[in-house]
Amino acid sequence: MKVYDRVLGMISLLLLAVLVVPGIAAGNASEVLVSVGKTQVTAADLETAVRSSPFAVQFNTLEVQEQAALRGDLLKRLVALRLLHLEAAAQGLEDSPEFRREIEDYRTALLYRSYIQKLREQLRIPEKELQELKKKYKGQADALAAAKASWLAEKFRDLRLLTLQMLREKQHVVFYEDRIAQGIGSDTLLMQGDDIAIRYGDLVKKGEYAKLPDVEWVKDQLYQRAELLLFSHAAAEEGVDLDAKVKAYAQERLPALFVEKLEQQWVPDEETMKKYLQNNPELAHIPARWHVGQLVTSSYAQAAALRKRIKQGESLFTLAGRYSIDPYGRTHNGDMGWFKEGEGNADIELRLQNMADGELSDIVQTSQGYHLVTVLERRPGKTRNYAAMKDKIRQSIIDEKLAAYLATLQEKYPVDWKVLANNTTRDLKSE
Fold first, then answer.
1. 3-class DSSP state for residue 39?
2. I need a surface site. Which of 61, 109, 192, 422 has the fewest CB within 10 A?
């Protein structure tokens, strides 16, 4: 694990160095950046990931170094997804009924949205009514927009219901609502049409079939699904082509579903999480934080002289702005912001722990110089209980297990970072 983490860290630095070059950052669409087993990640794949990322809108406003760092991180994520996809396919998850059902549900949802959009596009406010609205709300742009939206919403509701009734008749749909309250199983038919059907198991989660159903809830789900199937079937009959979108979704969903199944193995119950917390108690610890003022000098004598002046009433912050050899401290007049327990110099941290707010420390020597520090305010550390930690514990287990699992997958499906095709890459391989 440590070697794997170290190599990934080195790869991160190298990717930053390589992807910062504009020509490589954009790359030719077909340029292979990484090969994963028998698959490849191209520059086009990376650019697609960039455009789909949450920071896509702000991406072009970032500094070149920031863009390169984000590209590098996305590239590593793409490699991880390819590894998981390959293993999921190898284990037959691609052909599982669960996965096929998810893909079919996704296709159905896309078809439904396509048909709904087509219905919306049919609606236009007649010119005569539009002119009347404009006359009525003259000079009131917001009111006019609201009136137009209200008109379209009402007409769309009528059109949707009319179309739904027409499709029901075309499909010769029959509902069997009386069966909902009976003792039923997953295969109990609740709706039947020429080409579509809905069974109880389509509406209720597996394992809940034997429970006494909430009749009204099931009935509501039944009619919602009937509309979904009727509209999507109509869109399919019209030849709406969604193959590219469905294929892209399947590529993304397969590794995600695989990870979900792995997570169930890694975190099967609460006992696993409680045991993990016992073995890693630091997870529950929230470190103390101090808002620190600091002045740093190059000699003990100068520090002693300045400490005396502060004791006599001069401001540490004013003096830090004049004399501190720490660039940040001098620029910010000694206000160093918040320090977190465990992240600073141990000797200085010890002083912070034992000082009262506003108290001036003695002189602390470090490799950076001679320090005078004071605490402006503090947030004491504390230990959270298990109930408050459950999500963090679960994620920590998953992160740890996933990193180790990806390391094993790299042995099964070799990863060749072609974007780093240089001497450093060969050095990494030899580690």
1. strand
2. 61
**Cα separation, 194 vs 309, whole angstroms:** 93
Helix (H) or strand (E) holding 99: helix 97-121
Strands 285-286 and 197-199: unpaired
Which of 162, 177, 152, 398 shows the shortest CA–CA distance to 272?
A: 398
DSSP state, residue 42 = E
Residues 316-336 pLDDT 10s: 999 999 999 999 999 999 999
Secondary structure of residue 36 in the 3-state scheme: strand
Task: Write the DSSP string, 134-152.
Answer: HHHTTT-HHHHHHHHHHHH
Name the band, by pLDDT with cuts 50, 70 and 90, for residue 18.
very low
Q: Which of 1, 59, 39 lies closest to 255 in space, CA to CA?
A: 39
Q: How far apart are CA 83 and CA 3, in angstroms?
A: 19
Q: Is 339 helix (H, G, I), strand (E, B) or coil?
A: strand
pTM above 0.85, yes or no: no
Contacts of 307 by beta carbon, 8 Å cutoff, 6+ apart: 360, 362, 363, 372
Radius of gyration of the chain measured on its C-alpha atoms: 32
With CA atoms as reference, report the closest residue to 259 among 84, 410, 92: 84
Q: In this predicted model, what pLDDT tens digit does every residue of 333-371 receive, in sequence order?
A: 999 999 898 888 889 999 998 999 999 999 999 999 999
